[in-house]
């Protein structure tokens, strides 16, 4: 495991690596998740072996530190990831990112284009103020202290055992602030940033999640949008072969 200090208090963002050839692939997880849990099984597939792979845990999540005075906005998370990649000597990486991690990856690619050569986004959050049915909206609807005191336990019960398995390793305050930051979005908003990027961009949408809003606009901007049959939000678990093919560029 490696680490790098991302704030003035010496808080550390941490990641694990699989060695291999450059350019590296960097994997970012979603809200209340961990990178290796969601992605390590994919990198073991034959079409993806042999490349350096970094599994980064965002601040407040998994193995990374959870400073109380950190903002946990999309910009804050992107800054911490940039610190990790700078420390690891990574440039021009392929960034594979899920859900909230996709929003972070878009902001990272906008802020630090030297770090990102390609984006593979799985059901990334593209818009601010998601519907009330979104998990991030439910978490953000709490006041922070109310969420820490009681809401966190209620959410863990509501999301089911699989998501709760990683969410319980997320600091409650970090989880709430990350959800609030995700709902507020970036400025300009993530969709606008994604459409304006010049790097290769693939967006995976699970068939079971329904049609992607604004698909035509994304495709007109050069984003390759792929609907994955038989998959929901977690394409890497529902259809790992298709997910790996998208990363390998053969889907």
List the helices and strands and how they pair.
Blueprint: E1 2-5, E2 12-18, E3 21-28, H1 35-43, E4 51-57, H2 74-88, E5 93-98, H3 100-111, E6 116-122, H4 135-140, H5 144-159, H6 161-167, H7 172-184, H8 190-196, E7 200-206, H9 215-220, E8 224-228, H10 235-238, H11 240-248
Parallel strand pairs: 3-4, 3-5, 5-6, 6-7, 7-8
Antiparallel strand pairs: 1-2, 2-4
Helix pairs in contact: 2-3, 5-6, 5-7
Instruction: Name the average pLDDT.
Output: 97
Would you count the extended β strands for me? Answer: 8
Low-confidence stretches: none
User: Which geometry do the CA atoms define?
Assistant: globular
Largest sheet: 8 strands, mixed
Helix-strand category = alpha/beta
Portion in helices? 40-55%
List keywords for this structure.
251 residues, alpha/beta, eight-stranded mixed beta sheet, 11 helices, 8 strands, 41% helix
Outline the structure in words.
The protein has about 250 residues and is an alpha/beta fold. It is about 40% helix and about 20% strand. It has an 8-stranded mixed beta sheet, sandwiched between helices. Helix 2 crosses helix 3 and helix 5 crosses helix 7. The chain starts with a strand and ends with a helix. The model has no long low-confidence stretch (mean pLDDT about 95).
Task: Give a short synopsis of this structure.
The protein has 251 residues and is an alpha/beta fold. The protein has eleven helices and eight strands. The chain is 41% helix and 20% strand.
């Amino acid at each position: 495991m490696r680490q790098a200090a991302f704030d003035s208090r010496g808080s550390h963002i941490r990641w694990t690596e699989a060695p291999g050839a450059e350019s590296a692939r960097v994997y970012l997880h979603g809200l209340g998740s961990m990178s290796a849990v969601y992605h390590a099984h994919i990198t073991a597939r034959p079409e993806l072996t042999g490349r350096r792979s970094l599994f980064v845990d965002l601040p407040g999540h998994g193995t990374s530190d959870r400073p109380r005075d950190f903002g946990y906005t999309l910009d804050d998370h992107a800054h911490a990831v940039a610190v990790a990649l700078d420390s690891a000597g990574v440039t021009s990486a392929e960034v594979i990112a899920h859900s909230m991690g996709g929003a972070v990856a878009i902001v990272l690619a906008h802020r630090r284009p030297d770090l990102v050569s390609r984006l593979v986004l799985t059901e990334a959050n593209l818009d601010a103020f998601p519907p009330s049915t979104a998990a991030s909206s439910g978490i953000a609807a709490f006041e922070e202290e109310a969420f820490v005191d009681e809401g966190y336990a209620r959410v863990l019960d509501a999301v089911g055992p699989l998501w709760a398995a990683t969410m319980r390793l997320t600091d409650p305050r970090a989880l709430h602030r990350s959800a609030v930051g995700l709902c507020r979005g970036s400025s300009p908003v993530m969709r606008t940033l994604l459409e304006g990027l010049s790097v290769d961009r693939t967006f995976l949408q699970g068939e079971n999640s329904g049609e992607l809003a604004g698909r035509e606009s994304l495709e007109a901007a050069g984003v390759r949008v792929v609907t994955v049959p038989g998959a929901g939000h977690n394409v890497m678990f529902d259809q790992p072969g298709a997910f790996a093919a998208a990363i390998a560029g053969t889907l």
